[in-house]
Design brief:
Elements: E1 14-16, E2 26-29, H1 31-40, E3 48-52, E4 58-66, E5 71-80, E6 88-92, H2 97-110, E7 114-119, H3 130-144, E8 151-152, E9 156-157, H4 158-163, E10 169-173, E11 179-180, H5 181-184, E12 190-194, H6 202-210, E13 214-218, H7 226-240
Parallel strand pairs: 1-3, 6-7, 6-12, 7-8, 7-9, 10-12, 10-13, 11-13
Antiparallel strand pairs: 2-5, 3-4, 4-5
Bound molecules: S-adenosylmethionine.
S-adenosylmethionine is lined by residues 173-175, 194-195, 197-200, 218-220, 222-226, 229.
C-alpha cells in the first residue's frame, strides 16, 4: 500500500533578507526575524531555513548563533535560481485598507511584477502606506515561494499613468463592456488597469480608451468589486498569456 503522504507537507521556513546573498557566507537577522525564528518557530542553532534577497534566487541557510534579540545565519548553498516572471503590472485604484491589503497579498501570490496605486476621480482612499504594502508583499512572497518581490510603485494620478506609458499593452477593465479576455490577452509586457468602487468617470473611460495600445476588456457579465476585478483580471492574464500556460 502506498504510504499516506504527510499533510501539511513539511517545509522549511522561508525568509526575505535585505542583505545581498551569494557573496556572503553569514548574515545577521533583524530583531523581528530573530524573534520569529527563535520564539515563534522555536528554532535554534543548527536548524535549516530558506532565504532569498529578491534578486539572487533562494538559498539554504542554517542558524549559526541565536541570542535573545539577534541571530546569525550561515548561508550554505543556492537552492533555486531567480524565477522568470511575466512582465505584468497591475494599476489599481486603492480601496479600503483591508481590501487593498488583500489585493496586494493575492496579486503577489499570483505573480504580479509591479503594483501601481492609481488615484482616480472616484478613488476614496486618500493615502496609501507604501511601507505597509511592501511588508504585506514580502510576507506573501515568503509564503508562496517567490524569489523576487513585486515592486510597489509610488501612487500616481490616472493622468500621470497615461502620460508615462511605454510600449506595453494597456488592458483596461471596463465594466461598460470590452473584448473578452480570452481573445484580448496576449503574451508580452502588460499593464492591467482596474477602477475604484464607483468605477471610472465617463471622461476617464474616454481618456483610457484613447491611450496608445489601450484595449478595453470585459471581465464577464457581472459587476465585480474593485479588488475582485483586479485579481480576476490578473489570474485570467496568467492563465491565458502568463506563466500558468507552462
Ligand atoms: N461603476 C460600477 C458601478 O457602480 O456599478 C462599479 C465599478 S466596479 C465595482 C470597480 C472596477 O472593477 C471597475 O472600474 C472596473 O475596472 C472593474 N470591473 C468590475 N466588473 C467588471 C467587469 N464585469 N468587466 C470589466 N471590468 C470590471
Amino acid at each position: 500500500m502506498p504510504a499516506t503522504p504527510a499533510w501539511p507537507p513539511k517545509s522549511l521556513p522561508r525568509l526575505f533578507v535585505r542583505q545581498p546573498l551569494g557573496e556572503v557566507t553569514s548574515i545577521e537577522l533583524d530583531a523581528g526575524q530573530a524573534n520569529y525564528l527563535g520564539n515563534v518557530m522555536r528554532l535554534g542553532p543548527g536548524a535549516e531555513l530558506l532565504v532569498f534577497d529578491g534578486s539572487s534566487g533562494e538559498w539554504l541557510a542554517r542558524i549559526a548563533e541565536a541570542g535573545k534579540k539577534r541571530m546569525t545565519l550561515a548561508v550554505e548553498r543556492r537552492t533555486r535560481e531567480p524565477e522568470a516572471m511575466p512582465e505584468v503590472w497591475l494599476a489599481f485604484a486603492p480601496v479600503k485598507r483591508a481590501q487593498t491589503d488583500w489585493l496586494v497579498e493575492k496579486a503577489t501570490e499570483l505573480g504580479v511584477a509591479r503594483l501601481i496605486p492609481v488615484m482616480t476621480q472616484r478613488t476614496v482612499a486618500e493615502r496609501v502606506k507604501l511601507e505597509r504594502l511592501e511588508s504585506i508583499a514580502i510576507e506573501a512572497a515568503e509564503q508562496c515561494g517567490r524569489t523576487r518581490l513585486p515592486e510597489i510603485a509610488e501612487p500616481v494620478t490616472l493622468k500621470q499613468l497615461l502620460a508615462a506609458r511605454d510600449e506595453r499593452r494597456l488592458y483596461f477593465a471596463d465594466e461598460g463592456g470590452g473584448a473578452p479576455v480570452g481573445s484580448a490577452f496576449q503574451p508580452g509586457p502588460a499593464l492591467i488597469l482596474t477602477g475604484p468602487e464607483g468605477g471610472f468617470t465617463d471622461e476617464e473611460r474616454a481618456a483610457i480608451r484613447a491611450a496608445a495600445n489601450s484595449i478595453a476588456v470585459s471581465l464577464g457579465p457581472r459587476i465585480l468589486r474593485a479588488e475582485t476585478a483586479a485579481l480576476a483580471a490578473l489570474a485570467a492574464f496568467m492563465a491565458i498569456a502568463g506563466d500558468w500556460r507552462q
